[in-house]
Amino acid sequence: MFSRMRCLVGGGVQDSPRSAAKRVSPASWRVDTAAAEAAAGAGGKGPVICFRPPDVMETVHEVAIYIHRFHNLDLFQQGWYQMKISAMWEEGGTKTPASPARVVQYEASDVGADDALGIWKIDDVDNSFYTQPFRIKYARQDIYLSVMVSFNIFNSEEEGPAASAVMLKFELIYAPTLDNGSEIQSSSVASSAAVHEFRIPRRALLGLHSYCPVHFDAFHAVLVDLTLHIVYLKAGATKPSLKVPDQGLGPTSYHIVKALLTSRKMLLEELKKISDAIGKRIEDLDGADLNLGKYESVNPTNSGLPNSSKVFPATGKGVGQLAGILHEFLERPNDVVNGTEDSMLYTLPKEELLELFLTVSGQLSLLWNAFLKFHRINKTKILDYLHDVWAIDRKAEWSIWTVHSKIEIPHRYLRSMNDDSSHRHSLLRVSGSRKFHDDPVQNSASRAELHRKSIAQMKINTQSVQDMHIYADPSRVPVVLIEQHVMVVPQHGSSKDLALDASEQTDTIVLPKLQGDSLAPKSSSGKKSGRILRAIIFVHGFQGHHLDLRLVRNQWLLLDPGADCLMSEANEDKTSGDFKEMGSRLAGEVVAFLKKKMDKLSRYGGCKELKLSFVGHSIGNIIIRSALAEPALQPYLKNLYTYMSISGPHLGYWYSSNSLFNSGLWLLKKLKGAQCIHQLTFSDDQDPQNTYFYKLCKLKTLENFKNIILLSSPQDGYVPYHSARIELCPAASSDTSKKGQVFTEMLNNCLDQIRAPSSDTRIFMRCDVNFDQSNQGRSLNTMIGRAAHIEFLETDLYAKFIMWSFPDLFR
């Protein structure tokens, strides 16, 4: 181990074994910078590393990072990759830098001889850790690294517990291969490809056990399965004397003891949770003495921890009990390390304070080492458990940027359009809960901006790891307004009333699974029962590319790794034509894709169930609906599962208020003669009731989906807001002409499909996405609404918030 840890020896210095031995000291000791500089200035021939033993109450935060798996989700380039990991104080100052303390290869790497190069290493210059280099050759490739590195983050006795957060930096290093594809080029060619940073709040530095996925960025989409485990310990392996030093204890001694007791409490609680969740005992703690001696008897009934016999059944020595004298002190909701007026703690004499410090730190060391061994034995079960807990917590943690509401949809929005009086009466009746004289676009934008301002003033105080892709600037993250329209519709022939009250609807909302239920997709392994084919079809928009929706696809694959995705190419460079023709091409492509996948599954017992989902962007949604009306897809309509429409003009471009964009559409029709633009603007026939969109809305293209999610943005000027949401707009509500009647009939036809009778509960959601455009200024893209329309393709945070809040809709 020491031969690999080059930080323990001076580079490039030739010494005798005796002199070298003087400079190599236990890793738990700290480098004495002043002594090292003095030794180097006194005639030393090279850099000298001097060590000093830790102070009596010197402490350390140990951050153990288990790197389980590197999954290539969407890397663009083949080649050699490795990860560089470093840790540093958020407010560094003169603090000792965090440094790798130990590395454990807890399982032999499964990387083949041709796909691995060298071993892991520690860089003692910048105190970083490098994983073993590995070669990426294809998409969805798994590399099991199975290595643990722990960083020691020291606190001197004068500093006390951490007063700053710690930043974890993961860097993806890339080097191309030679022409023969099997050898790496010189190290000088290697470069940093992407960075993903996480912030560990100082409260979490006292104790944390969490799953922490690393994704890097949109252009280097991977999934690195990590778990983080943090504990606060006494520095040094030796046990100091119980005698108080001549210089006495420092002013931070009480804070240090309090923090250690908190760390002990948190570690015991987490050990119990993990042990119970995976159904395994921590045998190394059987019979362990975890009493706090005389400090237990002051107020033992106030213990905040479970009974010891329930934590570790084999021991009856007070496991899980806090010092009663410090219970109220530790349980206060305020910061656990900053209290200065806690008289009960300050009444302890120095000798007893030191004794309590040594007792607690000894127990922490015992518990921590027992956990590390327990983790090595049960690594997979612990990873699965922590992943499930993390997944369940997503909706709550990301609720900062989502606003949820429940909107009741009556059995019928509007009456028949046979006469104007009926038309006006029904509009007034239905719109009673919504004021149509107010602009819905402006209302949505104002709500989102108000929420964004509240986020900017919010003090986010969390004990969980913070992903800096999101938390670096919380006020610039997309805000998502989610309206849940949950309708329990009766089966065919049932006489149940469709219009349920709000309380009945609330009970039908799809919620994340309860803790303890694995969130990983369950796949059948038996050949007799067959397998489930979950197919997702992604369809680009006007003049788009088949990879336009890859960020949404990647999020879907993170939720459901077993899904089969088709990035439609049938209409690439062909989106100016007729929607019916585009739909026919997509239908043929989908059928060929499904047959290919089913033929493959026939070798493993066949396909026992098919779940077919669609995701479309812009006019890709019209192509999807056109394809669903094609005869080729009729046999698969019963298998439709989730439909996610991203800014789709489902009601065409009638009542578009974007005059600049409307002018552009007019030019496209005149100069290019694009048939799809004529269809979108209802100019493909003089009679509106003979246009393509009117006929499409009459076809049953939506009613077979179990889940329908309509995404829109009030900032998107390329697609009318009401058209993306399939709802009434103020201009249409006041239009008594034939155009208004035809539009309302189209709207009714679409909504009737969503309300159509079904044997299952149908989930219908409208999601408004408000992007931060403060950096874009008053550009032409923002003025015409193009920026938001394209932003749906260039960021995945909005999709992440929606999909992880309702995971059952996407698996």
TrEMBL record:
Task: List the InterPro entries hit by this protein, alphabetically.
Answer: AB_hydrolase_fold (IPR029058), DUF3657 (IPR022122), DUF676_lipase-like (IPR007751), Lipase-like (IPR044294)
Per the record, which residues fall in region Disordered? 1-26
Residue ranges of every copy of the DUF676 domain listed in the record: 536-723
- Please, which domain of life does this record's source organism belong to? Eukaryota
What is the similarity comment for this entry? Belongs to the FAM135 family.
Protein name, please? DUF676 domain-containing protein
Organism whose genome encodes this protein: Panicum hallii var. hallii
